[in-house]
Hints:
The chain has 7 helices and 21 strands. The protein has helices at about 50, 100-105, 115-120, 125-130, 160-170, 260-265, 280-295; strands at about 15-20, 20-25, 25-35, 40-45, 60-65, 80-90, 95-100, 110-115, 155-160, 175, 185-195, 200-205, 215-220, 225-235, 240-245, 255-260, 270-275, 300-305, 315-320, 325-340, 345-350. Strands 1, 2, 3, 4, 5, 6, 7, 13, 14, 18, 19, 20 and 21 form a 13-stranded mixed beta sheet that branches. A 3-stranded antiparallel beta sheet has the order 10-11-12. A 3-stranded mixed beta sheet has the order 16-15-17.
Amino acid sequence: MAETRFKLVSDLIDIICTIDDVPVSALLEIQYSHTINAGRTVSIAIDSSQQRTLARLGARIDLKVGQNDVTIKDSHNLDFTGIIVEASPSVEFTTFTAVDFVTFLQTSECVDYKNNDIVGEDLYFLAAEACNYKGIDTSRLLKGSGIIATEEMGLAGLQTRRQFLDKCFTNMEQFVNDTEHNDVVVVAWRYAIKRNNIMDFWLEDPLNKRYYMPVMTVSENSSNLVGDGLVTSVDMTQIVNSATYQNKSDPTEFITVTDDDSVRRFGIRSRLYQVDVEGKGNLEMLAYQAVTRFKEPTFGYNVTLKNAEHITVGDYIKVRNLAYEKEETLPVVQVTHSFTDNITTQITLGKPELTLKEY
Length: 359
């Protein structure tokens, strides 16, 4: 059967949707939402009079949204494969929500991960093996991180695959001090299914001078801003400019590292870390890393744009902050695309939002 193409917005945007291989044509609205280290969700409204019976819980949905170039295979940049988990039928229209295959990791049967099997292995490949489940394509996860699992990471135990995956990525961070960066930086690995059922791991390193490539530059004066436009948030709740690391097994062994310049500008903001680490040299290295990472306030940006459906998590965007006289390149950590009679995209740059409770 030929695919049914429904022009929701314009001739520039092509939309193909099937539910359990049945074409869906009466699409009224689509909204994608995605955050790093999490699954994608898609909310769709369809004409109830025609196809509401399709939106059954557990049904498989395949969706393509993108540039209309039928001469190029897989030219749709928002390809989605998922499972319907919520449905709200009504007389006029039916809305439903689908989630991608990360949900299978979240709800998997528990696995008893043992230190004998995981200690000494690359966290990248441990995480990849956890994702190799229920139709998730892990064939592209071949790089490795060079970060080796240790017993101190607390990875072992009876848990779901998603719990183990998140533990791996919590530990997949590195401090880098080399010629490719102007300063000592923290780089972190991220995961997501960006397209169809294909799992992707990538190194988030926007300050690398050698290979980062912003997909877009925005400022308060950008012509494609809509709604609230560019909103800046400055957060100092995460600042740590004096870090004390203490050996749990010997409380008399501890070391404190303080950044005097950060203290002068923002006041003393200290934190005690109690760890299973011996030796003052090791404790000093950890304290230095913590202060290096957290001594400055966090700048974050929420951007609302038109016709930016090509943006996805993991992309880099350069921000020219005229108010703070600041220019920086930041990763997209959260994105929402809305397709109705127009296309709007809301993007969060920097870090996912944190609550004061987490602080």
